[in-house]
Amino acid sequence: MTPDTRIIEMQGIRKVYDTGKVKVEALKGIDLLVTMGEFVAIVGPSGSGKSTLMNLIGCLDTPSDGRYRLAGEDVSKFGRDDLADVRNRRVGFVFQGFNLLPQISAFENVEMPLVFGGISPKKRKLRVEELLGRVGLADRMEHKPTELSGGQMQRVAIARALAMKPDVLLADEPTGNLDSSAGGDIMELFTDLWNQGATVIVITHDMTLARRASRIVEIHDGRVVTDKPVAA
Amino acid sequence: MSPRDVKVVLHLFARSARLQKKRATLTIASIAWGTVTILLLLAFGEGLKRQLSTNEKAMGENLAIHWPGETSKVWKGLPEGRPIQPRIDDIAALRERIPEADVWGEMRTGRTNMTYGRKTVNGQLSGVNWIYGDPRKHFPRPGGRFLNARDEDEKRRVVFLGYELAEDIFGKEEPVGKTLLINNSPFTVIGVMEKKTQTSAYGGQDKNHAVIPITTYKAVIGRDRLWVLVIHSKRSEDMEEVLAHANEVMAARYGYDPKDDHVWGIWNTVKGQAVGDKIRLGMEIFFGIIGALTLVIGCVGVANIMYAVVKERTREIGVKMALGARRGWITGPFLLEGMLYTFVGGLAGAAIAILIVTLLDLIPQEGARVLQFMGKPTLSWPIGAATVAILGTAGLLAGYFPARRAAAIDPAATLRYE
């Protein structure tokens, strides 16, 4: 394993939420290493610290303690704007609730990270068209999210997550809001992306979904309890 | 801000602005309303101020009217309680010693018979030096003139009439050139005073008196004593010095202690003007504050709406942050929106206010008694500048606080599915 294939390196990560009187320790020392091209499922019951871990991996939050290197960059002490840049360049988010901007079209939603990335309008157009084609929505570009089905919305969200060619695709319960058929399609899409070389991390409590990954990390009470590859 | 920041902010602004026409319209309307209010208040204030000033100055400016009194101090063997009675020849002496001021005397009879044809009117008669005309704002109507030096030198029997007195005597007839009997002596009317709104006066309103040369007055009425002695300083700041000088001259002529302040009752209008200026300034500040408060309400409205928008779009803001938006890119569109509403609203309000003021200006002041005292609303550059400053600050604040709240949103907290 050469160092430059390491995407996520977490050492002794702790996260404490200070709610005034009570301090809640959501993560109690997590070590996690994810290398390029892995498909990792992070599983655990609710309240186990999954979401906190996802926020930290996605640079939406910073750890209280420990060291986190994302694609070789130590981001544990980054300021807000630097974290924003890191998210833009390195992380593609897919959420359970899709989180598309409701008043703008699918095209404009996918375009948003490219705008933040400082990509020229001409290149943006080509890239968005390519991405929406890849997720099978070439004919839905001008549709608003409300005019799309749940599965289609999640495809738009995946296209948006891929826009800046991130180092890692980070999905939080991506099928949680979909029926089993649409959910299966979405997981199929993730598998395809992984097969094309993407690094994918999925956070879920659904074990059938988790078994599609190459590796399952189980979190319980703020600690990693098991971490093993999935038998092919 | 880098060019990239500007590009991103404008992109986001364009994407959000097209969605909210109704809200934008209402917000702009509230700012426009506030702007109209402040501009009209200030314009009315300015108009009132100017009119009050004009009315107050209709009697003349920088005048010191001296009523003779009596001494209250023993002086060089002379007892106290001596009346001081200035006469016509004091005027020449004063003019010689204080060339920097105009000096004139006035004599007066309260009720004098003035007869034209079959009509006799009881009017006030003033005998004055001819230089009285300009400083006392006795401007003749076209076709007439005020008294001149020759009238005075030759003791001509000419009279200049206040416009109301002229109307009482002559009705609709043109008085200039007509002969009028005053105390049974014939006088030729040489001029009638132009109308003016006068709010300060000594011995009655100018529109009601008849003015004749002081020399003629002496010859006809047979009196030499002045009713008042008036000193007109060319510059208001010289007044105190001129008065001190005049007092010395008179004290020497009549033999009284120059420090005796009972000799003259003096009305110095320079002091009154200063007080008036302060009152007018106070009035303007008052109007300004009321106007500004009204405008603030409009801006609070903008801020309120923007807060609501921030709240309503918390998740959207969180999403943008997750996608890599820097803080400035989140706050920028809000600031821009707040400023745009304020700018457009301010512009619309200014246009409406200018329209209203212009329309009011078309009402003739002549017939409208109210306008003679209230004046006409006037928009001036300082008013415009003050309004722009208030609007600008308010607009910035209306955008700033909601934007700050938007920037403080924690993306991690908003993105979880609820």
Descriptive account of the structure:
The complex is a heterodimer of chains A (232) and B (418). With 232 residues, chain A is an alpha/beta fold. Chain A is 33% helix and 28% strand. Chain A contains 7 helices and 10 strands. In chain A, helix 6 (180-195) links the parallel strand 7 (168-172) and strand 8 (200-204). Chain B is elongated, with a radius of gyration of 34 Å. Chain B has helices at residues 3-17, 21-56, 88-97, 149-153, 163-170, 214-221, 239-254, 269-312, 314-322, 327-361, 369-374, 381-407, 411-415, and strands spanning 63-68, 101-116, 119-128, 158-161, 179-182, 185-192, 209-213, 228-233, 264-268.
What is the spatial order of strands in the main beta sheet of chain B? 2-3-7-4-6-5
Q: What is the element string of chain B, with H for helices and E for strands? A: HHEHEEHEHEEEHEHEHHHHHH
Number of strands of chain B: 9
How many strands, which pairing sense, and closed or not: the largest β-sheet of chain A?
Answer: 6 strands, mixed
Write the layout of secondary structure elements.
The complex is a heterodimer of chains A (232) and B (418).
Chain A: E1 6-18, E2 23-35, E3 39-43, H1 50-57, E4 65-70, E5 73-74, H2 80-90, E6 91-94, H3 106-116, H4 121-134, H5 150-162, E7 168-172, H6 180-195, E8 200-204, H7 207-210, E9 215-220, E10 223-229
Parallel strand pairs in A: 3-8, 3-9, 6-7, 7-8
Antiparallel strand pairs in A: 1-2, 1-4, 4-5, 9-10
Helix pairs in contact in A: 3-4, 3-5, 4-5, 5-6
Chain B: H1 3-17, H2 21-56, E1 63-68, H3 88-97, E2 101-116, E3 119-128, H4 149-153, E4 158-161, H5 163-170, E5 179-182, E6 185-192, E7 209-213, H6 214-221, E8 228-233, H7 239-254, E9 264-268, H8 269-312, H9 314-322, H10 327-361, H11 369-374, H12 381-407, H13 411-415
Parallel strand pairs in B: 3-7, 4-6
Antiparallel strand pairs in B: 1-8, 1-9, 2-3, 2-5, 2-8, 4-7, 5-6
What is this entry, summarized?
With 232 residues, chain A is of the alpha/beta class. Chain A has helices at 50-57, 80-90, 106-116, 121-134, 150-162, 180-195, 207-210; strands spanning 6-18, 23-35, 39-43, 65-70, 73-74, 91-94, 168-172, 200-204, 215-220, 223-229. In chain B, a hairpin with a 2-residue loop joins strand 2 (101-116) and strand 3.
